[in-house]
Design a protein that fits this description.
heterodimer, A: 241 residues, mainly alpha, elongated, B: 246 residues, alpha/beta, Rossmann fold, 6-stranded mixed sheet, 4-stranded antiparallel sheet
Chain lengths: 241, 246
């Protein structure tokens, strides 16, 4: 556990020192605001639906911080060669993957928290003041965080599979956006696909949590991380560098 | 201390290490020499447990190379080729991180950091970002990291690559001082005769993934260049290969 926390702390500090991370934070908050206002403009509803709309916006925009925070996890280490130093330290491969994954996930959660903090500021400017339940918003955020954990695992795995940083970032954005839209039923013609796993964030925001969705996200995260550890192990066998 | 038998490493059906066999005792300082692509770096990577061998047998300080890799890493200091370091970290911060990663206690880390920073003459750069350091200083930081936990085995992959003459001399003297009076086993690769003659007690020449010469008579090489010796051994190796093929 100590090794995981050490690697996680080091990664968090590295990410906080990077200009790209701050751009990711800013981009995420801006994208959330843009998606939120677009949905709001096009929909007719009550202010009780605001938490669900915000969570949908967060869910779609979360691909930005996830891709930015995960692209450097392994691809950057391989480019600079530091992966060799890390992998010859007395830590095992699963500790390395978990340490890095947790760091990227923590940073994504910080980004979500930043957008969450900005939300009341958006609404403060509205007149008349809308009413919404903070508890509903929190419930919706929990779903966003659970899915962010899954997308972070996707990004971690893709970062392991590439030597360069751009391809995993682009692929993470594509996969995350496609599946987010698919799960939320935003792709026309795909409404019935994955219908069993369709996320109705409004439901979550009302407190009607569908445990199948949570189980799906958590088990997929575990599976992807397990796969990532195996990929890291296999790198020792197939790579001369 | 190090016992390797019939060790092979194959990349894409091409043997990079071909049934290497050698032992190195406590306190021995072995220089691994050979042309580029001879397999020196791969051998060090296998010994550092970064790469697993494809076949063979190996024990380091009694630990099996295949099944006890974590125990081997704990007693080994390794400086990889090109000295990869985290450029965004400061020197002291990096050494502290590496010490903690090796399960060292806080007080011991502080003491050892003080020792290696003094030994590698890095006091003026303690708080400098690694990314801003010159090649020679980076090598010294890498060396300080490799020696931080007082490893029983030190593996250095070309510790003076890309260094100017001043830094080469500096690193050679740091290594000579660090190794004097210790019972540590040192294995290093280099293309410089200067560091070999100053530090090594044994020379192993490699060619095409095989050991072609192994000698303890380092002093007798003083008047000959490494290229001359390597050429002679390579010729002998090639003629023996031809004979065995016939």
């Amino acid at each position: 556990m100590r090794e995981i926390l050490l690697i996680c702390r080091k990664e968090c500090l590295s990410l906080l020192r990077s200009t790209l991370s701050w751009c990711a934070f800013a981009g995420f908050v801006a994208a959330t605001g843009a998606i939120f206002s677009t949905i709001l403009r096009d929909s007719v509803g009550t202010s009780e639906q605001l938490p669900a709309i915000l969570c949908t916006a967060l869910h779609l925009a979360v691909c930005i911080p996830v891709s930015m925070f995960t692209m450097n996890l392994f691809a950057g280490e391989r480019t600079s060669g530091t992966i060799e130093t890390l992998m010859t330290s007395p830590v095992n491969d699963s500790q390395i993957v978990l340490g890095k994954y947790i760091a990227a996930f923590i940073m994504t959660c910080i980004a979500i928290a930043a957008a969450y903090i900005v939300f009341p500021a958006y609404l403060a400017m509205a007149a008349p003041q809308p009413r919404y339940s903070g508890l509903s918003l929190a419930a919706g955020i929990v779903v966003v965080v659970i899915f962010a954990a899954m997308w972070t695992a996707v990004g971690t795995l893709l970062s392991l599979m590439s030597r360069h940083q751009a391809p995993p970032a682009i692929l993470t954005i594509i996969i995350t956006l496609t599946f987010s839209a698919l799960f939320t039923g935003n792709i026309i013609g795909f409404e019935s696909v994955l219908s069993a796993l369709r996320i109705d964030i409004a439901d979550f925001a009302r407190g009607n949590a569908d445990s199948r969705v949570i189980f799906f996200a958590v088990s997929t995260t575990v599976f992807l991380l397990f796969w990532a550890v195996r990929v890291l192990e296999s790198r020792r066998w197939i790579s001369s560098k | 201390m190090i016992e390797i038998r019939q060790l092979s490493k194959i990349f894409s059906k091409r043997p990079v290490l071909n049934e290497i066999t050698f032992t190195a005792g406590q306190g021995e300082r072995v220089a691994l020499l050979g042309a580029n692509g001879a397999g020196k770096t791969t051998l060090l990577r296998v010994l550092a447990t970064y790469l697993p061998a494809s076949s063979g047998f190996g024990k380091i300080a009694g630990f099996d190379l295949f099944s006890d890799s974590l125990s081997i890493r704990a007693i080994t200091g390794y400086l990889p080729e090109g000295v990869p370091l985290y450029n965004d970290m400061r020197v002291a911060e990096y050494l502290k991180f590496r010490g903690r990663l090796r399960n060292m206690e806080g007080q011991l880390i502080r003491k050892r950091m003080h020792d290696v920073i003094a030994a590698c003459d890095l006091a003026s750069w303690r708080l400098s970002r690694i990314g801003s350091l010159s090649a020679g200083l980076r090598h010294r930081v890498g060396l300080a990291d490799a020696m931080l936990h007082e490893p029983r085995i030190l593996l250095l992959d070309d510790p003076i690559a890309d260094c100017d003459p001043y830094q080469t001399e500096k690193i050679t003297s740091i290594l000579a001082d660090a190794e004097e009076g210790t019972q540590r086993t040192l294995i290093f690769t280099t293309h410089s005769s200067e560091i070999v003659l100053s530090i090594a007690t044994r020379i192993i020449f490699m060619e095409r993934g095989q050991i072609i010469a192994d000698t303890h008579e380092v002093a007798s090489l003083k008047n000959k260049t490494l290229a001359t010796m390597f050429g002679k051994w390579k010729k002998e190796f090639e003629s023996s290969m031809e004979k065995s093929e016939k």
